[in-house]
Amino acid sequence: MPSNELGDHFRILTFGESHGLAVGVVIDGVRPGLALSPRDIQVERDRRRPGTSDRVSPRAEPDQAEIVSGVFEGRTTGAPICILVRNRDARSADYQALAELVRPGHGVGWLARYGVRDWRGGGRTSGRETVGRVAAGAVARRLLADRGVQVRGRVVEIAGIQAGPADWDWIDADPVRCGDADASARMAAAIRAARDDGDSVGGIVEVTATGVPAGLGDPVFWKLEAELARALMSIGAVRGFEVGDGFQAARVTGLAHNDRPTAEGFRTNHAGGVLGGISTGQPLVVRLAVKPTPTVGRSQPTVDLAGRPGATPGGGRHDPCICPRLVPVAEAMVACVLADAWMRRDAGDSEADAADLPTLRLAIEHEDDALLAALGRRMALSVRVGELKRKLGLAVQDPVREDAVRRAWMERAALYGVPGDLASDVLDRVLVASRDVQSSGDLEDPDSTR
Ligand SMILES: Cc1cc2nc3c(=O)[nH]c(=O)nc-3n(C[C@H](O)[C@H](O)[C@H](O)COP(=O)(O)O)c2cc1C
């Protein structure tokens, strides 16, 4: 069953069933030296976890992520990373009554395809499988954060109720995860009403990735939006995918839809950050239609495996709306696809070493881009450190800390094959600039002509 893997360079393989011992993911292709702790995984895992509000399944999984391999002393080693989460609150007996029944809206084709069926929960088709995806997404996010990319999602519609602009500082505290307090309250009421009626509702989830440079993705079968559609449509309960204006693009004219290019970039972003399969440098915007939860509180008419009429028992634990929990899963899939596309581009660039000068120069420009983006972020962090030091009454210069930074820097420079003199010179300049901004609290105005 070779269908459990995704990605070409950032490769993930999820494993486990909802009512087996554990679920998780194996990730291969991650470079050595990336700082990664169970905490990085846990933060994302907690956002997907059931039992966090009355809007989602009351199955109470503590969901502790364990890093089984590929990380030593807080850094990736380059070996496959295995992340495992044990199933502790699976009550298989709840599903005994369903063992011989066809469950409406669930993966009824498994038996026809494989001749066996794991009737406890949804087996591999369960929402629980997404635990491994979210763990992989946390690793992809660490890689992307180093490149200045931020991936974030929200619910934009539930039961036909549309959200207005989001308050991103509040969104993780919003049980509906839409970030618009008024719409959130109305969506929550609709979810409650559906649940009280023994029913369920669906909605739309949107994911945006900012900081994506122009030039990610490849033409034809590996178009970036095709890769995204494949990864996102593989999430249970997702029934539709749009990029940019999506289906709305079919209802307007070319003049209205085309994003006008200018010297400063595109005026609009109807394309959703991708044209011809390759990112444009605009924010990447995708949306997913999520169906109402198939398992509902009421009994549903069905047949048994022999085709005799029957009915599902009502009750049981289920999400009356999957959308809030699907947001971190969708973010994770977008992060995995972007990390993969980025690594494919880098691999292509380095393969071009022996090919031709223009491609090699382009590869160098890509690396310069990454270097400058990292430097910019480092300086911005220094400004914040300076603010904190002033608040705490601490001196800007801290020789002990600088020694520690220098030791770590030189060790890592050796790991990446950077000559010692170059690494030391660059660090000297970085430390001087860092002390300057810590003292003044200012980054040089990038638009200044000084
Ligand atoms: C995060 C998440 C949680 C889910 N929770 C439930 C649930 O509690 N009850 C349910 O019936 N389906 C749930 N689903 C949906 C089913 O897994 C899915 O609808 C089913 O396997 C059939 O697959 P399909 O909808 O992709 O065709 C969930 C899906 C996800 C992604």
Provide tags for this entry.
450 residues; alpha+beta; Chorismate synthase, AroC fold; Chorismate Mutase Domain, subunit A; 2 domains; five-stranded antiparallel sheet; 10 helices; 37% helix; globular; disordered C terminus; binds flavin mononucleotide
Can you give a write-up of this model?
The protein starts with a strand and ends in a 10-residue tail after the last helix. Strand 2 and strand 3 form a beta hairpin. The chain is globular, with a radius of gyration of 24 Å. It has 10 helices and 18 strands. The longest helix has 36 residues, at 357-392. It folds into 2 domains: 90-116 and 125-347, 4-Layer Sandwich (Chorismate synthase, AroC fold), CATH 3.60.150.10; 356-440, Chorismate Mutase Domain, subunit A, CATH 1.20.59.10. The strands form 6 sheets. A 5-stranded antiparallel sheet has the order 1-2-3-7-4, with helices on one face. It has helices at 38-48, 110-114, 130-145, 181-196, 224-233, 254-257, 323-351, 357-392, 399-415, 420-440, and strands at 5-6, 11-16, 22-28, 65-69, 71-72, 75-76, 81-86, 150-158, 161-162, 203-210, 238-243, 261-262, 265-266, 274-275, 278-279, 284-290, 301-303, 309-311. Helix 1 (38-48) crosses helix 3 (130-145), helix 3 packs across helix 7 (323-351) and helix 9 (399-415) packs antiparallel against helix 10 (420-440). With 450 residues, it is α+β, with helices and mostly antiparallel strands.
